[in-house]
Amino acid sequence: MEHRRSLWRIWLMPLSILLGAAMTVFIFAFWVDSGGDFSKLGRIFHPHPESAANAIGNTAEVVAAVLGVAIMVVAIVVELASNRYTHRVTELFVGEPVNFAVMGFFVITAIQAVYTALLLDPDASEGSVPYVGIAISLGMLACCLLILLPYFAFVMAFLNPISIVDRIRAHTMRVIERGKYSVGARQAEAVRGVEQLADVGLNSMEHKDKGISMASVDALKAMILDYQELRPRLDAAWFRVDGDLAHNPDFVSMSDEVLAAVTRRRIWFEMKILRKYQTIYNEGLNRMRDINYLIAINTRHLAEHALDTGNHELFDLLVKFFNTYLRATVNARDVRTAYNVLQQYRLLAERALRHENGARAAEIARYFKYYGLVSFHATLPFILETVAYDLCQLNEMAFDQGSPAQRELLRIFLEVDKESESDIQEVSLRGVRKAQVKLATYYLVRGDERLAREIFKDMERERRDRLASIRDELLGVRSSEFWEISDRGVNFDYLEPERKEKLLEFFSWFPDLAPLTLSMVPERVPDAAEVAAAIAKRKQERDDPTLHPSPGAGSDPAT
């Protein structure tokens, strides 16, 4: 359907308009000159020999001039597109059958006009005049003039960078699938296609063409998805990393052991694409963050597809690249990008909760903790705070699903807090504690006080002034939406009214807290009897053996 629309828009509609306009002008002029005598139209097919000689003599010159204009315009436009995006543009353009057909038609028209002119003798009798050759020559000349503008429209559409991206992707997948080429040739063409798509993305970023960069990033993702359908039909030789492939810049620095592992896992093509993702991602840090967000989104989609299809090797590879993105982001101190990449990583962990008893979700949570603490020591407090809130959300989902990984996720979450070493890190620690308090209120709302007390025990030795200020800040947040434009659009510190009630219950377990101010009191506050009962219950359970031995110790409550 899209091809038909393109055919009508680029070729048929312009040709119809031009032909109709030309015929209208000709008929109107003829009608005025002939006084309405349309019988004289027969002269078109049986012209006077001298008139025919004059007409056919100029045809070859006109066609040659039009062909020269077409070649000049096309050469300039193709060269500009090639320099701006990728040199593959020239190769694709030359190999396009439409270009050969149009240029060939111009050449054939010129040859036809030249040889017809040689056969024409103005002084000969009418019986020897090549009327058919003249009519064909003039008709072909008209076609040459009529198709010139539609052809220019085709060239512009062909050189549209989005179309170039789609053509490179489609061509690369066709070569991979075809068995008539040798394995080495197919591997070389596959690598070439991936690198050219990455070049389009990088060059577009240099020129601030965000849409084109995004199209190339999406095309690389589509190649991986299309490749997954081809994998079962590829022979074992395709998956080996040796010869010219091993000397590719993305593989040449790898040790023999790593290359052997890539061959064994049959993932060299996916790794090649993801290495290009890494290159584009690094270029986008602190410059074009939307590209980084799209790479993170696409990486998540690929990992979810790998989970659903049971491709564990690809999933593990994608998790490694997620970690690589985070490392590069922290090194570049790009907090905003980390904020959005962590969201995509958390969404992947939530999907992983449904697989293998949540073991892979717990693995991702450990990476969350690791990179959160890396950010903590790099004095990037907001990243650790974001990690804490994402782990809080992951724990909530694990609780709702009854995941076997729930206790491990809680243990990891309670290990995230570290004592601050500076004022900046103090902000980070407060964010972690707020997230832990939010999770405690979630457990209480869901009726599981035992898990809430695990969090209480982890926080029991916390400074009372810090706890009181955290309580007051959480109670004081009235809006669930953040007051600035953000991609997540949520206020981390917001609690629903029922969770604010449980917040007060949770903090009633801590003795010696400063009292609430009236402005902090929510609509419903537990009465004195409820508070007294909660305190008594806390004293009775002080020696509960399932509680953590010390804040942040992180031992499994079940042991």
Helicity level, as a percent range? over 70%
State the end-to-end distance: 63 Å
Rounded mean pLDDT is 82
Note poorly predicted spans. Answer: 541-559
What is the total domain count?
Answer: 3
Q: How many strands in all?
A: 0
Helix segment tally: 21
Largest sheet: none
Question: What brief labels describe this structure?
Answer:
3 domains, disordered C terminus, elongated, 559 residues, 21 helices, mainly alpha, 71% helix
How is the secondary structure organized here?
Blueprint: H1 2-34, H2 49-84, H3 88-94, H4 97-119, H5 131-158, H6 161-177, H7 183-206, H8 210-230, H9 256-265, H10 268-284, H11 289-309, H12 312-332, H13 335-352, H14 359-377, H15 381-401, H16 406-414, H17 423-445, H18 449-459, H19 464-476, H20 497-507, H21 528-540
Tell me what you see in this structure:
The protein is mostly helical and 559 residues long. The chain is built from 21 helices and no strands. Helix 13 (335-352) packs antiparallel against helix 14. The chain is elongated and about 120 Å long.
